[in-house]
Design goal:
The protein is mainly α. The chain is about 75% helix and about 0% strand. Helix 4 packs antiparallel against helix 5. It starts with a helix and ends in an 18-residue tail after the last helix.
Length: about 160
């Protein structure tokens, strides 16, 4: 092989090798950027889900708390200011002290007994139920504050092929 042919051959080999290395480097950076973008999108979606979960936790009233609110509304009267003031503290937020809770229990017990025509049987039933519902709401709140919701991320690889 003469010198000019050998030089041409070397140039072609170097051109092919440098093209292959350039292609490999470009492919590496392209896939790395795509993975980084995918991870950033995933983290953004997880953050959005966490935000939505917090909002749901704040806006959806547990069933027992909603039932407590119904009972409080039924038991609230203009002629029972002490009991009404204590029931307002049932919340949200719950601000009733243990002493006030005991006093509310006494007042509710009085309400279950005969108070003449001032209350009907449905209100007596509400007065019997409210202490039990208050305990349930307190346990729900305690459970909610001690057990943090757990959010797990699961990656799923989707095939490039169309389903048949």
């Amino acid at each position: 092989m003469d010198l000019s042919t050998r030089a041409l051959f070397n140039s072609i080999v170097l051109l092919v090798l440098s093209s292959a290395v350039t292609f490999a480097a470009a492919w590496f950076w392209f896939t790395k950027t795509a993975r980084a973008k995918e991870q950033a999108d995933t983290l953004r979606r997880v953050a959005e889900l966490e935000t939505q979960l917090k909002l749901v936790g704040q806006t959806i009233l547990p069933l027992s708390a909603a039932f407590q609110a119904v009972l409080v509304k039924q038991l609230t009267h203009y002629h029972t200011p002490e009991m009404d003031a204590l029931m307002v503290k049932l919340g949200p937020p719950y601000t009733l002290t243990p002493g006030e809770a005991a006093r509310l229990g006494v007042l509710l017990e009085e309400r279950t007994r005969d108070m003449g025509d001032l209350i009907d049987e449905a209100e007596r039933d509400a007065a019997r139920m409210l202490p039990m519902v208050m305990k349930r709401v307190a346990s729900d709140v305690a459970l909610e504050t001690t057990v943090a919701p757990e959010l797990r991320f699961v990656a799923v690889r989707v095939s490039d092929r169309d389903p048949e």
